[in-house]
Amino acid sequence: MKINRMRLKGLVIKEFLQIWRDPSSLAIAFILPVFLLLLFGYGVSLDAKHIPVGWVIDKNTPETQSFSAAFGQSEYFNNDHFDSMVSAKRAMQYREISAIVHLRENFSRELFKQNSPAIQVIIDGVDANTARLISGYVQGTWNEWLTHLAAIRGITLSKPIEVEHRIWYNSAVLSKDYLVPGLIAVIMIMIGALLTAMVMAREWERGTLEAMIATPVTMPEVLLGKLIPYFILGMVGMLVSIAMAVFLFDVPLRGSIGILLLAGTLFMLVALGMGLVISIVSKNQFVAGQIAIIVTFLPAFILSGFIFDIGSMPIAVQGFTYLVSARYFVAILQTVFLAGNILSVILPNAAALLIMAIFFFRMALRKAPQRLE
Description:
Blueprint: H1 5-21, H2 24-43, E1 51-57, H3 62-72, E2 77-82, H4 85-93, E3 99-103, E4 119-123, H5 128-153, H6 175-197, H7 199-206, H8 208-213, H9 219-248, H10 257-282, H11 285-303, H12 315-321, H13 325-339, H14 343-367
Parallel strand pairs: 1-2, 1-3
Antiparallel strand pairs: 3-4
């Protein structure tokens, strides 16, 4: 397959002029990723903060006040006091509070005895994930408060097991540090596919593809002439997304920016190749755009491991995720951003992206018309 550089240069210039005359491609490459990253970056969060908690205290003592104040000082809870369990349960039924903490009358008296005082905690379990978070927050706040109070009183707590927590890679346990890198993959697979999903379809609709086939220009040159300008636009959009992740969302970048860009290059080639195939097969700009959104964004959002753990999915669904290119780039992004240059993770996923890129471009070349019908 011989490529004529002069013809390729002319095709690239022609495509850049087309982009300049039709700025929708510029909007897709630059404005859309910024908008989506802002929308999802600030809108999607797995952190539960300012949870409304109802308190029912049978007898006010310095200990009960101190314990409830510990919750009030936390960013995770907002305290709301009730006179009785009946009124607290009614508030939970109306979704005014998410949990109830009930301190019985003997709370202070039995505090440091062998059998610690029973604390009744009722949690709204409609949202199972939030319920688990609340349970963990309550347990953690209780342990910290009890240890602090024992230290003030000079009492040694008897703990059969001393648990020391150590969290690697995302020590602050912030969901944005985990989600924003994944968002880059989800957004850029859609942007990349949209950039090329309509270029060949546009040539079909305008009848200019037949004119190009009648010239000495070869189909590989046509595809490369359309790929190169949109590859440049897509990579600039990716750089903007990475800069927003680091400087706007304060996500740590512990790995090499060079490795990240190399992996991003492979991923962008996959997205552009997928868009070319869609554009060639559909032959209609509107249909191509709709197909590109459906086959890129939804699988990337649900099946890439961006939010939902792949290991928790059914076996059949886990097998299907290997066909989703965003799965591999999400793994690379989260590794490079949070852990560093872990080549045992990066290289296999990069190899998978390379194979997918070759597959889509071979398919685009095979499906593209080679002669006039």
